[in-house]
Amino acid sequence: MTASSDQDPILEPFIRFAHAVSDPIIITKSDLDSPGPEIVYVNPAFERITKYSLQEVARKTPRILQGQKSDPEVLDRLRSELEENQKFYGKIVNYDRDGNELLFEWHISAIYDHQGEVAYWASVQHEIGKSKSTAESSRISAIVVAENHLVCSGIRTYLGRVATRVRVYEAYNYEDARNIALETGDSDIVILDIDADTLGSPGEIEEVAKAVDPAPLVVITSRTDFDSISSYFDIGVKGVVPRSASGDALLEIMKLILAGGTYVPWPSLSSEQSARKPSASDPALDAKIAKLTNRQREVVALVAQGHSNEQIRQKLGITLTTVKIHVSRALKTLEATNRVQAALLLRDRPL
User: Fold this and answer.
1) Where are the strands (E) in 79-117, listed by range?
2) What value does the mean pLDDT of the chain take?
3) Residue 106 and residue 59: Cα distance in Å, rounded?
4) CATH class of 134-259
């Protein structure tokens, strides 16, 4: 889902994640001069929420979303902050294809080339008009899993800048976190320090995710390689925070996630070697696709569009267990280790 068949390999890891994220994402070229940065990619969530297809916005600028209530002061600040700091956070009113207002929270960061120069901008646009922002409430309840009490204290301090009353439950391993979640049942956010020796495997994190659902799960980690980040999002994590992130950055990330958004550490992926894009003709992949059953094709097509298991269940009218079985068997047939890799393999391929 890119605007050009001559896709820059630098974008490959970013598109892998963007394709599976539930918030609208736009990737543009880096030139900020008039008429503005050219759109090279939008994810399925963008198409679903704005009602614009990639074909309609390709090679245009994000100004196609702006209208009467789009604050020009915010747009001026956006340019100046990107030029100075290579990142931006703000809120603005945009418009969908039918002219309906969309209140978006913007998080924009740079994608760098191998020489360390800004090559693209990645914009995550969380729609805040349809969700009650927990970040704006007066009370927040959090579970923090870390071996070091100082980590919990630091997070409590930053949460105190979000709400007037903060309750933090401290846990020292995933079993403690799961038990606290089951006993309290009122957590607004769960934060895992997964570099701790007692926590960190995908299986352990998934157990916590199930126990705390629907509270969003955030991990703080130094493991920001593609495979690790991919595995976290596969099991339901809503945000991956690099350990190198500043306290202020952590604060903004927690605000975004508390408001219902998703955070992907785009800059951490810049140094990753991009995966090879499958060629238009790939007999081996075609043979694997041919082995899928009709139902598996339906399910995996929705996976490739970025739908969650619950969304697939609702669309196809089957049980969640059945969805999981079809996804698992389809991934095995395609020899894809996770949903994101499957989405990449099947991009632009009819099922």
Assistant:
1) 87-95, 101-112
2) 79
3) 20
4) alpha beta
Q: ∠ CA 190-103-237 to the nearest 5 degrees?
A: 20
What is the C-alpha R_g of the chain? 20
Label residue 351 by pLDDT band (50, 70, 90). low
Length, in residues, of the chain? 351
**Domain 9-127 architecture:** 2-Layer Sandwich (3.30)
Does residue 190 contact residue 177 with C-beta atoms inside 8 Å? Answer: yes
Give the residue from 247, 290, 302 showing the smallest Cα distance to 48.
Answer: 302
Tell me the two tokens of residue 134.
Answer: 């927990």
Tokens of 16: 């892998």
Q: What pLDDT band is residue 26 in, cutting at 50, 70 and 90?
A: very high
Would you call 254 helix, strand, or coil by DSSP? helix
Each residue of 280-292: pLDDT tens digit?
Answer: 567 888 888 889 9
Within 202-308, residue ranges assigned H as helices are 202-212, 226-234, 247-258, 266-269, 283-290, 294-304
